[in-house]
Design a protein that fits this description.
There is one protein chain. The chain has about 650 residues and is mainly beta. Helix content is about 5%, strand content about 60%. The relative contact order is 0.13. Strand 35 and strand 36 form a beta hairpin. The N terminus is likely disordered. The protein starts with 5 loop residues before the first helix and ends with a strand. The chain has a single domain, classed as TonB-dependent receptor, beta-barrel domain (Maltoporin, Chain A), CATH 2.40.170.20.
């Protein structure tokens, strides 16, 4: 009788280790064929402002509608776009958090203050139209945010900071292994009196600082169902209150999101996702001449429901095939009251809303032939725009307007394809062409608004925006510590939705012929010992084309689009858990309006971040925003100006890394 070796017996009896990641499926081999850039956790958590939009601004081409961040902008103006494709506060780029679209179902803005950088493991930005999951929103590109797992976060972490205006930022995260899975709960609370957005010479007794008070709580759990299938659940609740320009000019946004995701990494890979979102927005408009309320947007409830099914069947080592469908339904309505600036009496009560849906079918295949990778994908969308209405009653409740809009539906197809060839020595060439689609939001279709003295009308007849574009690039990575890339692109948005001037102080959302953006994007990342450099630069020649009322903007640069945008960060790690970093950022001049009458001058800011270990896992943190106190114009409407964040210095402590 022979004895069984002890090591063999132990190996046979030891259960297989189950590893869960809390992430989606791995990126496909052809992902680098598109202009893709990843921001790792170290950069996200070291943003000098502590805001996710500041971290994303390190990517060449990323842009919000306005230069303000999520402490001093009206929430409805927080649209995200890429490549200077312009906009009207609605996002032309899709932002996904753990695979879930984050855009507001009614307005299309991104609730940036609800997305805490310290919860994330990475952010991946792909510029150019997308035809994969949720591709109907990826007109200008895709921003994928991934939550960090328990191992990355540690058992407990947090930070508490205060700035030179007495404002505070507090966050905490607790993570734990739960069997073979893990659970995470995190919270963040930001509050402060804010800074003066109104220039000193223009302030009146009613002028107010940009006060803010926001919280965000996220709960997340990941559990294995088998050795290759994991279940992910996430819940997010947040509220953000802000004051802009005048006492009483208060706005708020809030949301409650929940999602379930099933990810299979076996021979037949799959990603099944479902989510529901409940959102709301309020806003009070104050007269800039009499300084009393003139509009109360008291309630804007909206709901987003959707999901996706993606399947990757085994088709051989040289192919990665993706087949799937996704669905998104957005419904909501607004309730607002117009008030006389002279008598304080109600002059009108308005109610508007509708429902948009999109069902997309997509297929994409990556084919690897040695050093060459080819990719091609197609997407077919069935969209509906229905149940649209706008009603208005006078102060006595008598009906004045009762518009019911005809339901619409249709099919739209989009495609993308590309090639990536690795030439050796770290050198790669890539090229891609693509098309894309974006439905008008409920806000664009049905909600008029006023930013005194300009009134902007909605337009229930808006058509879908459609993008066509191509690009070519070169990547050079001679070592793990050096990565350089250069991309040239040409993108056109046909039927682009813009705020078009149709009379003095009157604009309307209209489909103009197109917005064309051509440009160059450059990125560089280098690590030399303890010193690292990250830089990006984008030059974009953007031009609007229009006829009819839009003829006046023909040949103009789209509003809110600079030609030059660049940033450079130098960091130094003298020892473990130490970090010193400085960031120089430049935004070129841009116009507030479509007629190029109100200019926002170029601005260059200097930010800094420092982290010093004290003891154990405790560190001292210092942050500086706009340390040169650059005067940053964020709004200019006929000489009525708003300014961005002035010099601000933060100090505090951080537990965990």
């Amino acid at each position: 009788m022979s004895a069984t070796p002890a090591w063999a017996q132990d190996a046979e009896d030891t259960p297989a280790v189950i590893v869960v990641t809390g992430e989606g499926l791995e990126e496909t081999p052809a992902a680098p064929a598109y202009a893709t850039q990843e921001i790792r956790r170290e950069r996200l958590v070291a943003a000098p402002s502590g805001r996710i939009e500041d971290a994303l601004a390190s990517v060449a081409g990323f842009q919000q509608f306005r230069r303000s961040d999520s402490r001093s902008a009206n929430p409805s103006a927080q649209g995200a776009t890429l490549r200077a494709l312009g906009g009207n506060a609605t996002s032309r780029a899709i932002v996904l958090l753990d695979g879930v679209p984050m855009s507001d179902p009614f307005f299309g803005y991104i609730p940036f203050s609800a997305i805490a950088p310290e919860r994330l493991s990475s952010a991946r930005v792909t510029r150019g139209g997308g035809s994969g999951p949720f591709g109907a929103g990826a007109l200008a590109g895709t921003i994928e945010l991934t939550s960090a797992d328990a191992e990355t976060l540690g058992a407990f972490g947090g930070q508490l900071l205060v700035n030179d205006r007495g404002e505070t930022e507090a966050s905490a995260t607790a993570a734990s292994r739960l069997g073979d899975g893990f659970g995470v709960i995190s919270g963040r609370w930001d509050r402060g009196q804010g800074f003066w957005t109104t220039p000193l010479a223009d302030r009146v007794p009613a002028s107010a600082r940009a006060a803010f008070d926001s919280y965000s709580v996220q709960v997340r759990g990941v559990a294995p169902l088998t050795d290759s299938i994991e279940l992910q659940a996430r819940g997010l609740a947040y509220r953000d209150e802000r004051t802009l320009r005048f006492d009483g000019a208060d706005s708020s946004m809030e949301g409650q999101d929940a999602s379930l995701r099933l990810v299979g990494r076996g021979e037949w890979q799959f990603d099944v996702l479902g989510y529901v979102q409940a959102r709301n927005f309020t806003n009070r408009v104050i007269s800039s001449t009499r300084f009393v309320p003139v509009l109360d947007q008291r309630n804007t409830p909206a709901t987003g429901v959707g999901g996706k099914i993606e399947l990757r069947p085994p088709v051989g080592d040289t192919h990665v095939l993706r087949i799937g469908l996704d669905y998104r339904k957005s419904e909501g309505e607004l309730f607002e009251t117009a008030i006389s600036a002279f008598s304080g009496a109600v002059t009108a009560r308005r109610n508007a809303g509708g429902t948009n849906t999109d069902l997309g079918l997509f297929v994409e295949d990556d084919f690897t032939l040695g050093a060459l990778t080819l990719t091609a994908g197609a997407r077919l969308d069935r969209y509906t725009i229905r149940d649209g209405f706008y009603t208005e009653a006078d102060g006595t409740g008598s009906p004045v307007i009762d518009d019911r809009y005809t339901n619409r539906a249709g099919w739209d197809a989009s495609f993308r394809g590309g090639a990536l060839v690795r030439l050796g020595g770290g050198l790669s060439l890539r090229g891609a062409a693509y098309s894309g689609l974006r439905l008008p939001t409920l806000n664009e279709l049905y909600r008029p608004f006023v930013v005194f003295p300009v009134t902007t009308q909605a337009n229930a007849a808006l058509e879908n925006e459609q993008l066509e574009g191509f690009e070519a690039g070169i990547d050079f990575k001679p070592a793990e510590t050096i990565a350089l890339s250069l991309t040239a692109f040409d993108n056109r948005v046909k039927n682009a939705i813009a705020n078009v001037t149709i009379a003095a102080n009157l604009r309307e959302r209209q489909n103009i012929d197109e917005i064309r953006a051509r440009g160059i994007e450059a990125n560089a990342a280098m690590t030399l010992g303890k010193v690292a450099f990250d830089g990006s630069l984008a030059f974009t020649d953007a031009e609007a084309r229009g006829t009819g009322f839009a003829a006046a903007l023909d040949g103009n640069r789209p509003s809110q689009t600079p030609r030059w945008v660049g940033s450079a960060t130098v960091s130094y790690r003298p020892a473990a858990r130490w970090l010193l970093a400085a960031t120089l950022r430049h935004v070129g001049a841009q116009f507030e309006d479509d007629l190029e009458t109100d200019i926002l001058p170029a601005a260059t800011t200097f930010d800094a971040y420092a982290q010093f270990p004290v003891t154990g896992s405790l560190a001292l943190v210092l942050r500086g925003e706009n340390l040169t106190d650059e005067r940053v114009f964020t709004r200019n409407q006929g000489g009525s100006i708003d300014l961005g964040v002035p010099r601000t210095v933060w100090a505090g402590v951080k537990l965990g890394l």
